Amino acid sequence: MTESVLDYMTRLGRSAREASRVLARASTAQKNRALQAAARALDAARDELVAANEQDLAQGRANGLDAAMLDRLALTPKDIDSMIEGLRQVAALPDPIGAIRDMRYMPSGIQVGKMRVPLGVVGIIYESRPNVTIDAASLCLKSGNATILRGGSEAIHSNRAIARCIAQGLLEAELPAASVQVVETTDRAAVGALIAMPEYVDVIVPRGGKGLIERISRDARVPVIKHLDGICHVYIDVAADPQKAIRIADNAKTQRFAPCNTMETLLVHQAIAAEVLPPLAAIYRDKGVELRGCAATRALLGADVLEATEQDWATEYNAPILSIRLVDSLDAAIEHINRYGSQHTDAIVTENFTDARRFLTEVDSSSVMVNASTRFADGFEYGLGAEIGISTDKLHARGPVGLEGLTSEKYVVLGDGHIRT
Rounded to the nearest 5°, which phi and psi values hold at 239? Predict the structure, then answer.
């Protein structure tokens, strides 16, 4: 009799729960051995990884995937280098598990403190990026969590090839094979099962399009760490250094178009617009970026700038399209960001310390930057080794989620025969 999707996912969940108990007590050295061995396995399997990825890319092109999706799906030699480096960085990071803080004596004589512990079993649901398989596996493993990885059907060959490398690392470190499990079926019912197993799964992290994340947030019976949109802004202040502003605004939009930390709206103080916008517009045009602007922007830059609509200010393009708005004050810039933004990443370019401090304080986003490109909002760039996702929620984890975001704390009490009277 063929195993149903529900039975299959239940088997994965049960195995993950058992593995999580082993991982919770695994030593730092053992976890690091698994990560380093997986890195060596990836390095040795470069040809197999590229071949598997080419299968996925060919199928994706045949299925009509757009350029942004194909860009996310691609696994280049540089991407493989980054995955290997990510594993090694995570291995080098301090292990948060077991750390005890704030131990203090109470009047009763007991000692009370907090110990950092794994969440348990983490389910990761993602679409086309195969590198997520490594990022998620490495962070979950180092933080003592078992993980169930459900990648998109468009990356199934890449994810299977990567999973074989992870399995080799677990084997060499004598950790359970079920510590990291890649869902083999492409049946969408697997997602529904994974998000409805609170007895086996402690948290879900969705990574992908807004539709996927909305569905999971709506239907999950397990807590979700997520962000819905990446509507990121750069604000060029009246006190900005023009050359810094041009360099940052160029990089924030054109370094890559698809990621969630790419700028979608450029805000410019009207007093500096004539100095920075024309050279920026020339750069964008050379790079094929379609510009949409407010009336003042169009008057300054010319008729080829399309009229920005109300919907444009609230749109994550994931494409070479940029909305531009001139504002008359820092207050107007902050109001625009807090109204239309997605609480992901926003940046100010300014040499005015007071303006910078106000922006940091008043912009309600998970990453807020001064004189830096929004493209830095990334776990690797933040020194987390890798990230499992970005959270714009305000409970538990916020911003790029690394090792600490995959842990919790429990109270620990030390006594010596103490009883309460």
Answer: -100, 20
Q: Could you tell me the two tokens for 149?
A: 């990885």
- Asked if 267 and 298 count as a contact pair (C-beta separation under 8 A), the reply is no
* b/e map 103-138, b = 16+ CB within 10 Å: eeeeeeeeeeeebbbbbbbbbbbbbbbbbbbbbbbb
Provide the whole-model pTM: 0.82
Quick: pLDDT tens for 240-268.
Answer: 999 999 999 999 999 999 889 999 999 99
| E strand or H helix that includes residue 41 | helix 28-44
Helix/strand/coil for 21: helix
The candidate with the shortest Cα–Cα distance to 47, out of 133, 177, 126, 165, is 165
At 372 the three-state DSSP class reads coil
Cα separation values, 213 from 127, 228, 280, Å: 11, 6, 34
**Length of the chain measured in residues:** 421
Instruction: Tell me which residue of 165, 220, 224 sits closest to 197, measured CA to CA.
Output: 220
108-127: pLDDT as tens digits = 999 999 999 999 999 999 88
- The Cα 163–Cα 150 span in angstroms is 11
Distance CA 42, CA 163 (A): 10
